[in-house]
């Protein structure tokens, strides 16, 4: 079995003061740098359908209303190497046209170039799903790819 599309093609990250976030068709990934030696008992993380809050050692690092809805029961967080918190949120709307422009409603927006690259990536990921026999991981796309690109399903 081949590696997932995002592993073959890389990610398009959006940098933030606390780390970065990026997305695939199905998920939003959040990586938060924390002080080395952080323990799981130091972390307070709450993941709701449209809300997130993260505090480490009593200091709030991330809090607010998410850009779009997620599946509450499928959100997870892990502490890696006692210095990175990785949060994975499952999008409710999983089509290529649902490219989050920011992590929270009014914060951590992707700059226009990053947003464009994210949308291109999601469109290629959609093409990969629709055509599993082809490898789109190294492909370039131009033209109409906003909102998930053209619909070829009726051809």
Automatic annotation (TrEMBL):
Keywords: Acetylation, Centromere, Chromosome, Cytoplasm, Cytoskeleton, Kinetochore, Phosphoprotein. SUPFAM superfamilies: HSP20-like chaperones. GO terms for molecular function: unfolded protein binding. CDD domains: p23_NUDCD2_like (cd06494). PROSITE patterns: CS. InterPro entries: CS_dom, HSP20-like_chaperone, NudC_fam, p23_NUDCD2. Residues 14-104 form the CS domain. GO terms for cellular component: centrosome; cytoplasm; kinetochore; spindle pole. Signal peptide: none annotated. GO terms for biological process: protein folding. Its main location: nucleus. It is found in: Chromosome, Centromere, Kinetochore; Cytoplasm, Cytoskeleton, Microtubule organizing center, Centrosome; Cytoplasm, Cytoskeleton, Spindle pole. May regulate the LIS1/dynein pathway by stabilizing LIS1 with Hsp90 chaperone. PANTHER family: NUCLEAR MOVEMENT PROTEIN NUDC, NUDC DOMAIN-CONTAINING PROTEIN 2. Interacts with LIS1. This is NudC domain-containing protein 2. The gene is Nudcd2.
């Amino acid at each position: 079995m081949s590696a997932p599309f995002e592993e073959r093609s890389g990610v398009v990250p959006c940098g933030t003061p606390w780390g970065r976030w990026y997305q695939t068709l199905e998920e939003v990934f959040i990586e938060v740098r924390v002080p080395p030696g952080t323990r799981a008992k130091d972390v307070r993380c709450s993941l709701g359908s449209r809300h997130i809050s993260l505090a480490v050692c009593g200091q709030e690092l991330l809090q607010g209303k998410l850009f779009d809805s997620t599946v509450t029961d499928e959100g997870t967080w892990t502490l890696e190497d006692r210095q990175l918190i990785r949060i994975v949120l499952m999008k409710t709307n999983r089509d290529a046209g649902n490219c989050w422009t920011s992590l929270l409603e009014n914060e951590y927006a992707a700059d226009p170039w990053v947003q464009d690259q994210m949308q291109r990536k999601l469109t290629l990921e959609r093409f990969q799903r629709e055509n599993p026999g082809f490898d789109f991981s190294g492909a370039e796309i131009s033209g109409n790819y906003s909102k998930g690109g053209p619909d070829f399903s009726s051809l």
